UniProtKB/TrEMBL annotation:
Species this chain originates from: Sphingobacterium corticibacterium
Pfam families per UniProt: Glyoxalase
Protein name per Swiss-Prot or TrEMBL: VOC family protein
Organism placement in taxonomy: Bacteria, Pseudomonadati, Bacteroidota, Sphingobacteriia, Sphingobacteriales
Every Glyoxalase/fosfomycin resistance/dioxygenase domain range: 3-112
Highest taxon above the source species: Bacteria
């Protein structure tokens, strides 16, 4: 069984599309009037960006504490490369520079109130 997609709710769909297409390797499939967008990455994983206004709410959506989405990178250099690109985006908030976290190397940042992790796959050497 393969995971088909994840739906995340954001206040600003256009800014989310920019983040995921310009920095995280997604291609835009459809953008429905900046209220909802569907993107896909090279692994055929779909990400649905749902605008909070479709929920008839104006505020920035809240996520549960420690909820986040994560993206594995090949090595520490790729983590640094993404970090250097992302830190030019004025609307993102970073917890720290890339560093050792748990048993891997990476960093966390926030888009609106959504936490996103960029790290090296800590299990890559253990996969048969």
């Amino acid at each position: 069984m393969n995971l088909n997609h994840i739906n995340i709710v954001v206040k600003d769909v256009e800014k989310a599309v920019h983040l995921f297409t310009q920095h995280l390797g997604f291609s835009l499939i459809v953008n429905r009037n900046s209220k909802m967008a569907v993107m896909e990455n090279s692994n055929n994983f779909a990400l649905v960006i749902w605008g909070q206004e479709l929920n008839h709410k104006e505020n920035i959506p809240e996520y549960p504490e420690n909820f986040h989405i994560g993206f594995y990178q090949k090595d520490e250099q790729e983590v640094w490369d993404i970090y250097e690109k992302l830190k030019t985006e004025p609307t993102l908030q970073f917890e720290s520079e890339p560093k050792k976290i748990r048993n891997t190397f990476g960093f966390y940042f926030f888009f609106e109130k959504l936490m996103i992790e960029i790290s090296v796959n800590p299990f890559k050497d253990n996969i048969a």
